[in-house]
Amino acid sequence: MNKPKLIIWGGFWTEHRENLLLEELNSHASVNAFFLRENLEQYFTIVSITSFLDALDILHHKDAVAVLSTFQAGFTRLKQDKPNIFEEIKKNFNGKIASIVDFASLQPYAEDILFTVLKPEKNWKGCIKRFVNRSDVIHMGWSAAAKYCTPNQKKEPTRIFLDHGHYSGDDFTGVFVSALNKLSLDTSIPQFEVYLQENKGIGSWPLGTSWHDEKYDRQQKVSWPDIMSEYGKSHIFCVTHRESAGLGVIEAAMSGALIYIPHEGSPFIRSELLETGLKHRLLPLNEEYIYKQLKADIIKGVHCQENREMVERTHDWSIAAKRIAQIFT
Questions:
Q1: Average pLDDT of the chain to the nearest whole number
Q2: What is the pLDDT of residue 217?
């Protein structure tokens, strides 16, 4: 029996004509496209369109049951930026048009279906959103690749990883660095080391050095396999800025890391995501508190394999793919 055809439109905003390769993944759109293809192939014959610029290629496959954009709200973006192309696709493509979003906001969307990382709200606000959205909103889930996000931590020294700074909002890397510098003066704890992602790439942080404010440049890419390698060596992963979802956070958790999440008024990662199984600590943005928590966890030790097993049961890409397949088959 022939499998139905599904188009995955996602990868790069620039020219790109080939299927995505693991070593070139460097964005949410490319990571989502790669792993959804890998996990949806059991249900569909997959056609990959890997450049935002090639949206019209969708019309070469009018027999597809749907096209799924891994560019966030990709068809809404296309309608805004290139309305003529969007209208041509909408008029001539017979299947459903869908996109991935972190969550459905209070705006009209061009898509027939939105697949969300966060669960749709079931309160009055959710009802208003559904009325305004004009799209069906389906929960896809918060996903990471269990096949590739694997724990590879040494027993000692404890490795702490600081996430990259924020590209537009407030960044609190300096609070963690101050706590870690204080920790480095404490002779009562086992050895530890600190790594972080900066604009110049991933490297070790020289303890005792004051933090320099740095606005994260999203164009300074680190390849996905290199980042996963670092996550797999890390016992503790520190979130340094607010995230609407945070792909790196769930990938670090899948790699076995204990996740440190600041809380200032509200958690830097949405509360509903934290209820889904990953091992984490909620911390006030306070140098002394973070210092004491780090000290306690380094002395006690982090059980990375147990952490990974908790996340693997609920957050692998195969689960998201099954939810998507149920809508289109």
A1: 91
A2: 64
Fold of the domain built from segment(s) 158-313: Rossmann fold (3.40.50)
CA within 13 Å, CB half, 214: 19
At 170 the pLDDT is: 80
Distance CA 82, CA 184 (A): 53
CA dist., res. 132 & res. 59, Å (int):
28
How far apart are alpha carbons 265 and 309 in whole angstroms?
30
Please choose, from the candidates 246, 233, 292, the residue with its C-alpha nearest in 3D space to the C-alpha of residue 273.
246
Pick the CATH number of 5-140 from 1.10.287, 3.40.50, 3.40.1350, 3.40.1360: 3.40.50
pLDDT at residue 153, as a whole number: 95
pLDDT in tens, 297-325: 999 999 999 999 999 999 999 999 999 99
Angle between helices 173-184 and 287-300 (to 10 degrees): 60
205 is written with which tokens? 């942080």
Is pLDDT of 216 > 70? no
DSSP string, 101-140: ESS--SS--S-SEEEESSPPP-SHHHHHHHHHH-SEEEE-
